[in-house]
Amino acid sequence: MKIKVKPEDFIVREKLKISFSSDGPYEVWLLKKRGTTTLDVISDISKKNRIKLSDISYCGLKDRHSLSFQFISAPKGAIKKTRGVNYELIPSGYLHRQVLPSDLLYNEFDVVVRDVALPEDIVLKEIEHLNRYGLVNYYDEQRLGSARHKKGFVAEEIVKKEYKKALKLLIATPSKWDSGKIKRFRRCLEENWGKWIPCLSLAVFEWEKRILNFLVGREFSKSTAKKALSMVDPNIMQLCFNAYQAFIWNETAAKLLLRYFAEDELIKVPYIYGKFYFYRDIEDDLLKKLSFIEIPTISPKLKLKGLLRDVIQEVLSERGINSLDELRSHIRGAIFRSHKRPFIVRTEIFYEVEEDEMYVGKKKWRLKFHLPSGSYATLVIKRIFHKEM
């Protein structure tokens, strides 16, 4: 089973709750991008138009390996250059404010799954189960971007005041998911940790250069590492904290599900930090009960009680954190922002199946469905085709 063989195999379109007007202080653009990340495009737009990154707003991040259509906004007249190597901007209207993540109603997906060997009746049965019962709303691996090297979490080390380790995880731990330039920079630091000058010319981002220039000539201590972490781009640091929240949420959801099912009753799908557990058949009363559960992402200000409190505390204890109150970074701008996330997500999948022109003798499935903001199409694919993983 293969997905994202080419960007056109994974199409995502944003659907917003709001309408645009014919004039206003903020201009809205439909961003069509192919084979690149939202943040890379935003950075390129900023440079080409000589505007601040903070002048550009968007509803969500879209996968690099996709053809995606999403909305961005900027002050009226700020964007004049509307094309890049792998993106274009299409004028869509105006608003009295910037677009916000809360404006996103849902994402619409059109996904091709290739090289499928499973018999059609098995795939159809899995689709039927998913359409009827939904699935656990885990964060998929994309959300764990800063930790996809499988060596730990920047935010966790910051919380534990292990600032030197946190910095090394962030800038000197390469991942197979990194682009070529980023990988070269991180490998250089990995091999020359403590010797900053040889790697300075390889730094990709300005914040990385600032950190290395700051470290040159200084003793590498806990306090200098902490100061260096305060120089990280705020958006990057927020992604690190989001990744850790996602991991704790996933662990909480898995343990919660195991309160209602024996492990051998569940579908198990491996991912980089453990297993996703999914139910297949479920009693209507239990499904109704679970559908009302919302699991919050962790923060020190979170107030919990009952089963959720116990499960989240169990997960944190396993990570060496004794209480939610310890989730304080002591680094400016590095904070946990909590929000509630539904335990169960529901969707309706429409499908077509035909011979795969790219993999002779195999089938390809085209699946069309939509998901609320923050839910992952790749998770739907893993749930349906888990027998091929």
Spell out the blueprint of helices and strands.
Layout: E1 10-16, E2 26-34, H1 38-49, E3 57-58, E4 67-75, E5 83-84, E6 87-95, E7 104-116, H2 120-133, E8 135-136, H3 154-159, H4 163-171, H5 180-191, H6 197-200, H7 206-215, H8 222-229, H9 234-257, E9 267-271, E10 274-278, H10 284-291, E11 294-296, H11 306-318, E12 340-342, E13 344-345, E14 350-355, E15 363-372, H12 377-384
Parallel strand pairs: 1-4
Antiparallel strand pairs: 1-7, 2-4, 2-6, 3-4, 5-6, 7-15, 8-13, 9-10, 11-12, 14-15
Helix pairs in contact: 4-8, 7-8, 9-11
What can you see in these coordinates?
By secondary structure, the protein is α+β, with helices and mostly antiparallel strands. The chain folds into three domains: 19-98, Alpha-Beta Plaits; 108-143 and 242-388, Pseudouridine synthase; 147-237, Hypothetical Protein Yqey, Chain: A, domain1. 33% of the residues lie in helices and 22% in strands. Strands 1, 2, 3, 4, 5, 6, 7, 14 and 15 form a nine-stranded mixed beta sheet that branches. Strands 8-13 form a two-stranded antiparallel sheet. A hairpin with a 7-residue loop joins β14 and β15 (363-372). The longest helix has 24 residues, at 234-257. The protein is globular and about 65 Å long. The N and C termini lie close together (8 Å). The relative contact order is 0.16. The model has no long low-confidence stretch (mean pLDDT 95).
